[in-house]
Design goal:
Helices cover 29% and strands 23% of the residues. It has eleven helices and 15 strands. A nine-stranded mixed β-sheet has the order 3-4-5-2-6-7-1-9-8, sandwiched between helices. A six-stranded mixed β-sheet has the order 14-13-10-11-12-15.
Length: 342
């Protein structure tokens, strides 16, 4: 998706897919936020369309935006010599171009007070650092619903596009779990919800090569942090519970979820269940948990009544479940999240 001749990331390519929610995940410093700012500045200059910049907490917002006496939001844009013919300024909650308001800064944690506010000219929302790492910040309770409430306040039945920008921390975040999203493993992007959601997993080889050749790149070469900061490998997606099944496992049942068939295998000696892409093709019974997967030859299960699902929940909650690959783990954890939630 990204032009290989470009050193930094450009957001314009994915906008051609016309998705409503765009989840953009890339290594640090590749230019996600810079490109998003360029995009909304151009939209205001050319069409008068405004934007909203979102961070989770007020402290994060102040760090990213600054104040009227210490303006930060446009700092990189100005330093790079962009939009020299225009005056870019900001206060703690508004952004201006040539003295005219072009955007607003909002903290998600306090966004409920905005329900009566009008954002009629806003056509783009930037949610920066939507994935967070371990530390002093935490996801909000019911965070996704909080964001959807904010979106409804801003959009008011209009097609306002959202740019969710994040570093490669973990694919097991509230937004991916809520919408059943996954990373594209053989491409730079993947479409969900009939084209309304796009996940862009940045692969900028030119940027990576230059960063690896830097002194810092050489210093961290071969480390887990290098994989995250340079190669865009999910930092917190560990290999825990990832293990190949042994030859004496017994096939338990087939489970189909969102078009993918998983084989559920039991290792009786260890009392461990393995989740695999392998399954017994002769087995006539195929279980499903979603109506979209249900057909004439499947059995629809409900987590509260099915012994099969209750067994999966038991093995998962007691650390007795293994996945044959990281990809299977990332996918199937969403299945378990669905079972436990409902």
């Amino acid at each position: 998706m990204n032009n290989k001749n470009n050193f930094y990331y450009s957001i314009t390519d994915i906008m051609g897919y016309n998705a409503l929610f765009n989840y953009i995940i890339g290594e640090r410093g590749v230019g996600k936020t810079f490109s998003a700012k360029e995009y909304v500045i151009n939209k205001f200059i050319k069409k008068g369309e405004q934007f909203v910049y979102v961070r989770r907490y007020n402290t994060e917002l102040e760090e990213a935006v600054g104040t009227s006496t210490k303006q930060k939001f446009f700092e990189q844009i100005i330093t790079a010599g962009k939009f020299k013919e225009h005056k870019l300024t900001n206060t703690k909650d508004t952004f201006k171009i040539d003295g005219n308001i072009c955007g607003y800064a909002i903290a998600l944690s306090t966004s409920m007070i905005l329900k009566s506010t009008s954002f009629d000219k806003v056509t783009t929302i930037i949610f920066d650092e939507f994935i967070i790492d371990k530390g002093c910040y935490h996801y909000l309770p019911n965070e996704v619903e909080s964001f959807l409430e904010l979106y409804e306040t801003i959009a008011r039945l209009r097609n306002v596009k959202v740019l969710f920008l994040g570093n490669a921390i973990s694919s097991s975040n509230p937004y991916f779990l809520y919408f059943d999203l996954s990373l594209p493993y053989n491409s730079t992007h993947k479409i969900f919800k009939n084209g309304e959601i796009l996940v862009n997993y940045i692969k900028n080889e030119n940027y990576r090569a230059v960063k690896k050749a830097s002194r810092f790149g050489k210093l961290i070469a071969g480390t887990k942090y290098s994989e995250y900061a340079i190669d865009n490998v999910m930092f917190r997606d560990s290999n825990t519970f990832v293990k190949k099944k042994s030859g004496n496992c017994k096939f338990y049942f087939k489970l189909k979820y969102q078009g993918t068939i998983y084989g559920i295998w039991l290792q009786p000696k260890e009392n461990v269940i393995y989740i695999s892409y392998d399954y017994d093709e002769k087995c006539p019974i195929e279980f499903v948990v979603e109506l979209d997967d249900h057909n004439e030859v499947t059995f629809l299960l409900r987590s509260r009544t099915s012994v099969h699902i209750q067994n999966l929940i038991y093995y998962y909650q007691n650390s007795l479940m293994r996945f044959e690959s990281q990809k299977i783990k990332n996918e199937f954890i969403k299945v378990m999240y669905k079972f436990i939630k409902y």
